[in-house]
Amino acid sequence: MRLKAKFWALFSILGFFAAVNASVCTSQAASQISKQQAENIVSNAFHPGSVEKATKISNQQKLPEWNILYANGSTALVSMSGTVERFSSIATAASAKGKTTNKQAVAIARKLIQQLDPSHSKLVKLDPLHPNVLKGAQFTVSFTRVANGIPFPANGFKVAVNKNGSIGSYSRTWSNSVAFPEKKGVLSQQNIINHADNYLTSSPHVTLFYYMVPWKKTPQLLDLVQTKGGQVALYAKNGTLVTPPNSKQSSVAVHIPIYKQAWFKWTTVGVASVLLASALFGAGVKFGRRNLGHENPNPAA
């Protein structure tokens, strides 16, 4: 009798978990938007015209997304929760004509972000490290995530606004689980300038920001010290260069014109890390024969 009671108790527990699992799967399936819903979201924001093809694909995190191709060459990626992750269009003669100003482009980009991602739009500001500029017939406007009042350039939005006010492209990058260290303990701007003075010349400008250093588990507080001649990133709490632990001390001569010294000996890996700011912000600094100026050392998590 006791054995039978235990059997029914176990059977009931297994039945409960099966019901919970079925409920979760049903909930997840219900939360996934349809192809038509994805197309409607993109259409309301960008007006790209008729759809040529829409397919379900997996992103880098192996999560399903709607990949939509339009007849005019535009493309869009929409998550199953209904969030537009990417959009791009083909430039035309009409999009290159217009009198949209820098200020208007910022307003257009901000309105678009508020429409597509209202909750996260409240957590960003214009990126101080990537000021909006006119390139060709497009303004590139970047908004960076802000945590503890400090920009985190790895997360945010980038919008290309055409001269006629239409959207050339849109991208969103956001990490949901990030533990940001507190600002407490960072060096003063003058102190960090004194540290950077060993490497840079001319009047410096300092920007405090979070950065995902590859060998660290959480975002690190760095100071980007910029001058007319170049820039360098230092740890904000001690003013030291950002170099990997236990790097091999192979003596390699590298020509770095932004430094006071014309030739600076350091490790091959160390140079890339020391000047990660130059690589990140497109300064085009040369490491020997290798140009890292247009690489992205801080991909989205």
Task: From the alpha carbons, calculate the radius of gyration and give it in angstroms.
Answer: 25 Å
Compressed to H and E, one letter per element, the order equals: HHEEEEHHEEEEEHEEEEEHHEE
Domain count, please report it: 3
| Poorly predicted residue ranges | 6-11, 16-30, 248-301
The residue fraction in helices comes out at 25-40%
- Counting DSSP E segments of at least 2 residues, the number of strands comes to 16
Structure description:
The chain has three domains: 29-90; 101-174, Nuclear Transport Factor 2, Chain: A; 189-291, no CATH class. By secondary structure, it is of the alpha+beta class. The protein has seven helices and 16 strands. Strands 1, 2, 3, 4, 5, 6, 7, 8 and 9 form a nine-stranded antiparallel beta sheet that branches. A three-stranded antiparallel beta sheet has the order 10-11-12. Strands 13-14 form a two-stranded antiparallel ribbon. It starts with a helix and ends in a 10-residue tail after the last strand. The longest helix is centred in the first third of the chain and has 30 residues, at 2-31. The relative contact order is 0.08. 27% of the residues lie in helices and 31% in strands. A hairpin with a 4-residue loop joins strand 11 and strand 12.
